[in-house]
Amino acid sequence: VAVTDRIAAPIDATLVTQAVTDSREHEHTIVRWRRDLHQHPEPGFGEFRTAALIQRELDALGLTVRIGGSAMDVDAIYSCDETRIEASAERARQQGVDSDLVDQLQREGTAVVADLVCGEGPTVAFRVDMDCLPVTEASDVTHLPAREGFRSLVEGEMHACGHDGHVAIGLGVASLLAKRRSSLTGTARFIFQPAEEGALGGARAITARGLVDDVDYLIAIHLGLGYPTGEVVARARFLVTSKFRARLAGAAAHVVNAPETGRNALLAAATAALGLHAIAPHGQGWFSVNVGVLRSGDEQGVTPAWALMDIGVWAETQAAHDYVVARVHEILHGAGSAHGVEVDIEQIGGAPAADDDEQLGQLVSATAAQIPDIDQVRDLIICRAGEDATVFLNRIAEQGRRGVYVLIGSDLAAGHHAHDFDFDERSLVTGTAMLTAVAGHLLQREVSG
Ligand SMILES: [Zn+2]
Questions:
Q1: Euclidean distance between CA atoms 388 and 204, whole angstroms
Q2: What is the pLDDT of residue 449?
Q3: How close is the Cα of 157 to the center of ligand 1, in Å?
Q4: In degrees rounded to 5, what are phi and psi of residue 310?
């Protein structure tokens, strides 16, 4: 069956109006999902209750749902935090999530990839992330989730980046398209990715299952990121990023009786930390290096025999990134050798930069411009952040298909990752309408007359 590429076809205004009306009608449900997810935040690869909720809702809508091992390959991940995941699994079981499902997802991963199949035609995919952050949520009444009674039920875990909203939008778009499925042809795919924070490898693990290989158009989204309610950015690009954990192993000694037999891992780590923050700039692009964690030693009278450092690198260009990564290795090994300390460096996360598709960006812009609640549309911006949706975008681009990363503006109560972060829930409705209209356009069944 020959399928027309509808990317350049004129946008049907009725289709946009319908998406806006449907989205407003679903506002209550979309906000309810968001608030429920907000109360039950789960860490990367520990999104058990979240995945179960998504599976239940999408099953009910008649989508074909892949969950766990059929949606991702755990061997492709960089790293995960076993302690946080175990605590999350325990909570999920207590909250009534099927214990076998929790066990399965703990072994196989928490990704959910679901298809709304509407016959022959292109595949339009949406990627949203599901994980929270290790932050204790603000509890005072000036913080809306606390005031309205949907503050996180888990001390030390919080949806402080808006990923609860992303999941709600994903479910919203799926609901709206399912309702209109008789007017569509092709497939709408919803990719619910675990562990975006820290770029731990959730996107790689889903890509490893080939789940974007048959995708023609891919749209990844984020709320906020500095853009207010009513604004949309059609194409956001991100920095190249890598995350490392360095383990330094020295030798303990009595610091007064036999200090000469000690090998000081703390001093090696401290020397390396100063060196890492003093890497010379690169002529072909800005970069940033951060030693975010430095732990060492056990007791004041003992030469510190161990140290652990977590290091993040972000860069505008691959050249600058590769330069910094090479310097990171040299500095760590150099400081280690100066102190007679063994250094082991492990990559615990990472994401490339990615190209995007201008024409799909134009379709998003043109659609957004027709949504009454959107008053400003930007074409292309570069975010000072890493984001592993770029793994999907690169896979799509390699195959000559089209992908973009879209920002849905939202007024924020505080910055991303802050304990009093909150976004404007009106953006959920606007975002759902816009994405539904874009998918509706690309999957529109041609009426033969
Ligand atoms: Zn985020």
A1: 8
A2: 43
A3: 14
A4: -110, 130
Neighbours of ion ligand 1 (CB under 5 A): 161
Numbers of helices and strands, H then E, in the chain:
13, 12
Tell me, in angstroms, the distance from the centre of ligand 1 to residue 162's CA: 6
| pLDDT of the residue at 441 | 97
CA distances from 76 to 25, 208, 367 (A): 40, 7, 36
Question: Which residue reads 């989508």 in tokens?
Answer: 63
Nearest to 289 by CA among 252, 256, 321: 321
Where residue 1 falls among pLDDT bands split at 50, 70, 90? very low
Rounded CA gap, 229 and 377, in Å? Answer: 11
CA 27 / ligand 1 centre spacing (Å): 22
Is the pTM higher than 0.85?
yes
For residue 286, how far is its CA from the centre of ligand 1 (angstroms)? 22
Amino acid present at 204: R
**CA 181 to ligand 1 center in whole angstroms:** 30
Q: How far apart are CA 199 and CA 210, in angstroms?
A: 19
Measured N-to-C along each axis, helices 163-179 and 426-442 cross at an angle, to the nearest 10 degrees, of 40
Torsions phi, psi for 251 (to 5 deg): -140, 135
Q: Is residue 117 predicted with pLDDT exceeding 60?
A: yes
333 neighbors 227 (Cβ within 8 angstroms): no
- Tell me the one-letter amino acid at 422: D
Do 403 and 223 meet the contact criterion of CB atoms below 8 Å apart? no
Tokens of 383: 């975010």
User: Encoding tokens for residue 205?
Assistant: 């693990």
Token couple for 57: 């809702």
pLDDT digits (tens, 9 = 90+) for 266-325: 999 999 999 999 999 999 999 999 999 999 999 999 999 999 999 999 999 999 999 999
Tokens of 177: 């398209």
Average pLDDT, the chain: 96
Query: How much distance in Å is there from the Cα of 346 to the middle of ligand 1?
Result: 24
